[in-house]
Amino acid sequence: MIAWLTGTTLGKIISTFFISMVPVVELRLGLPYGLGLGLPYGAALGASVLGNMIPVPFIIIFIRRIFAWLRTHWNRLDGLITRLEKRAEGKGEVVEKYGSWGLLILVAIPLPGTGAWTGALVAALLHLKLKRAVPVIFAGVCIAAAIMTILFFAYKRFI
Questions:
Q1: Mind listing the pLDDT tens digit for each residue in 5-18?
Q2: Which of 12, 123, 126, 138 is spaced 20 to 30 A from 114 at the CA atom?
Q3: From 48-52, 73-77, 132-136, the region with the lowest mean pLDDT
Q4: Is 157 exposed, middle or buried (0-12, 13-18, 19+ CB in 10 A)?
Q5: Which letter does DSSP use for residue 39 in this model?
Q6: Cα-based angle 27, 140, 67 (whole degrees, multiple of 5)
Q7: Cβ distance 34 to 43 under 8 Å?
Q8: Distances (CA, A) of 125 to 2, 44, 70, 122, 157
Q9: What is d(CA 55, CA 52) in angstroms, rounded to the nearest whole number?
């Protein structure tokens, strides 16, 4: 089904961009996906970093209001929202302790439960200002991209 989209360079860039926007997988899947499709490194990197960063300011600005609205209108989602908040609060302790460095590390380490979405959620729940959080999250995404690049090419070389 997605073959029509990945048949052209533009389609490969678009699919890499959108995969990188998805929570949990983010750039950790988007960058290797784009490279695996045969995109030039710069195109895969640009699409995955941009795709990963697009949701960040919206999460920081709106997520608390979205959570409040969901709790008001869909009570069944309260448990899920509470779990997300508790998970973010746990990770937020590192950010509170180490400040920007803690947020950078949270975003930069390409493991489950980390990344730009989690960093943005933590920043929002800690009431960090957009102009402080976004550059740190961007730097973390760039570090994660470097790590994923090394892992991708190491895997490709040895397999």
A1: 678 999 999 999 99
A2: 12
A3: 73-77
A4: exposed
A5: -
A6: 75
A7: yes
A8: 36, 31, 16, 5, 41
A9: 7
Residue 61 CB contacts under 8 Å (≥ 6 apart), including other chains: 124, 130
Nearest to 63 by CA among 74, 51, 71, 52: 71
At position 150, the amino acid (one-letter code) is I
Report residue 27 as tokens.
């750039």
- Phi and psi, residue 99, nearest 5°: 65, -135
Domain that holds residue 114: 2-158
Looking at residues 118-140, what average pLDDT do you find?
Answer: 96
Residues written for the chain: 159
> Residue 148 is encoded by which pair of tokens?
């994923």
Prediction pTM value: 0.90
Domain count, the chain: 1
Q: Is 156 helix (H, G, I), strand (E, B) or coil?
A: helix
Residue 57, both tokens: 């300011």
pLDDT for 159 beyond 80: no
Amino acid at the residue 110: P
Q: How far apart are the first and last CA of the chain?
A: 28
Show the tokens assigned to 11. Answer: 């389609």
